[in-house]
């Protein structure tokens, strides 16, 4: 036997650590007094097999902290990555518009008045038809994005109706997914979305009510916090089978002590139907104070019975969905790129009238990956949690330039994530 390459010791209090395996996501708490002895056992595992510690060693083995001598964890990760990369799912992220009914300060997009036209709808439909046939696609996912995608329900409906019909006739799986601010949802619209096979919703909230409403408002909506949460409740009742994620965009200012109570006032009766996802606003710097505040908030939600989504709930198969060979982002003017997180005028391709993608500059960032480029990633204990720099970052590397860690303090970043993950798995 040998110890796993992905065992991580994380301090959780003055007297306690957690031993966490990044491959299996298994963990157990251990006193700081006994940590050194545990590490000694892991480093000398063979010598403990015959004696009274055998039961504990078997527990370590069953949970992936020690592994067979002939097991290659890195090769397993690599195989899982390529299986994910080469899957037969066509994921089209379609931006129906660059317009939005709010003007959030942190948004990466400049809200240009561009909306997907009926002419472009036909091009997208031809693209779906031709791409699926040429690439032996087994499942189609349409992921709707914006701006605020529900400002253009017409395009969503018409393209979805085509896709549903085409997939049904060709024995192709299909589902619709959407990221929305949730303010435009109504009972009639939700019924339409149910009829169009929407089964995945990500709806965003900007922290506690006062901060949220200062961020997300317009001349008609002053309390978008209440409106959005009421719409989430309505959504859970009208599409009970849907996967509904409430994404909390957090900053150093909007995770207040009363935030869980504000959310619970609306969602308590449907908390078993939704999942909370916490994401730091990208302009904010990660600090120990912010990490401590996040940990406390997550613990409160967990004790209230909410499900908290973590990147660690499953093996992380890639750093980003852009790694998938059959993923494209279609902008509302017909331009195309791999990543949607860029200015529309930087997109490198476009859709032709017959639905083909023509690249002005062929994307090469996914030709290499964390397993093919030199760098420190492959020897990092956090690899199964990270999977290296994103494709957009790799795009700007020189041909022989090595991968570099993108975190200023990777230990602080991942160890706080591990602490939060472990909280969500504790008994309530």
Question: Can you put this structure into words, describing what you see?
Answer:
It is a single chain. The protein is α/β, with parallel strands linked by helices. The chain folds into two domains: 70 residues, no CATH class; 356 residues, Aldolase class I (TIM Barrel, Alpha-Beta Barrel), CATH 3.20.20.70. It is built from 13 helices and 16 strands. It has an eleven-stranded mixed β-sheet, with helices on one face. It has a three-stranded antiparallel β-sheet with strand order 2-3-4. A two-stranded antiparallel ribbon has the order 1-5. α10 links the parallel β11 and β12. The model has no long low-confidence stretch (mean pLDDT 94).
How would you describe this structure in keywords?
TIM Barrel; 428 residues; three-stranded antiparallel beta sheet; single chain; eleven-stranded mixed beta sheet; metal ion binding; alpha/beta
In short:
The chain is of the alpha/beta class. Helix content is 35%, strand content 19%.
The total domain count is 2
Please work out how many helical segments DSSP would assign: 13
| Total beta strand runs | 16
Largest sheet: 11 strands, mixed
What is the element string, with H for helices and E for strands? EEEEHHEHEHEHEHEHHEHEHEEEEEHHH
Q: Which segments are poorly predicted (pLDDT under 50) over 5 or more consecutive residues?
A: none
């Amino acid at each position: 036997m040998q110890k796993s390459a992905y065992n991580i010791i994380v301090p959780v209090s003055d007297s306690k650590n957690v031993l966490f395996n990044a491959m299996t996501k298994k963990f157990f708490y251990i006193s700081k007094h006994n940590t050194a002895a545990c590490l000694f056992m892991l480093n000398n595992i063979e010598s403990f097999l015959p004696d009274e510690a055998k039961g504990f060693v078997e527990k370590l083995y069953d949970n992936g902290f020690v592994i067979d001598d002939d097991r290659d964890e890195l090769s397993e990760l690599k195989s899982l990555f390529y299986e994910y990369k080469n899957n037969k799912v066509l994921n089209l992220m379609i931006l129906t518009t660059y317009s939005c009914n709010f003007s959030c300060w942190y948004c990466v997009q400049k809200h240009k008045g561009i909306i997907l036209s009926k002419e472009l709808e036909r091009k997208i439909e031809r693209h779906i038809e031709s791409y699926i046939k040429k690439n032996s696609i087994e499942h189609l996912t349409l992921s709707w994005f914006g701006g605020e995608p529900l400002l253009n329900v017409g395009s969503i409906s018409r393209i979805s109706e085509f896709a549903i019909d085409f997939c049904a006739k060709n024995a192709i799986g299909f589902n619709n997914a959407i990221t929305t601010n949730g303010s435009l949802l109504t009972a009639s619209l939700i019924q339409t979305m149910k009829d169009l096979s929407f089964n995945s919703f990500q709806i965003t909230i900007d922290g506690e009510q006062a901060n949220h409403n200062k961020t997300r408002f317009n001349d008609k909506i002053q309390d978008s916090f209440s409106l959005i949460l009421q719409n989430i409740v309505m959504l859970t009742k009208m599409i009970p089978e849907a996967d509904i994620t409430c994404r909390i965009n957090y900053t150093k200012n909007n995770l207040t002590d009363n935030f869980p109570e504000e959310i619970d006032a609306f969602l308590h009766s449907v908390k078993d139907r939704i999942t909370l996802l916490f994401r730091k606003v990208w302009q904010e710097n990660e600090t120990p104070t912010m990490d401590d505040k996040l940990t406390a908030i997550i613990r409160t939600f967990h004790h209230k019975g909410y499900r908290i989504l973590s990147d660690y709930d499953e093996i992380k198969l890639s750093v980003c969905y852009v790694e998938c060979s059959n993923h494209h982002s279609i902008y509302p003017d017909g331009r195309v790129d791999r990543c949607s997180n860029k200015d529309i005028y930087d997109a490198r391709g476009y859709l032709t009238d017959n639905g083909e993608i023509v690249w002005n500059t062929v994307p090469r960032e996914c030709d290499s990956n964390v397993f093919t480029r030199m760098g420190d990633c492959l020897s990092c204990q956090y690899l199964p949690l990270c999977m290296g720099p994103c494709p957009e970052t790799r795009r700007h590397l020189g041909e022989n330039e090595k991968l570099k860690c993108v975190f200023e303090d990777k230990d602080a970043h991942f160890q706080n994530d591990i602490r939060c993950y472990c909280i969500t798995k504790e008994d309530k």
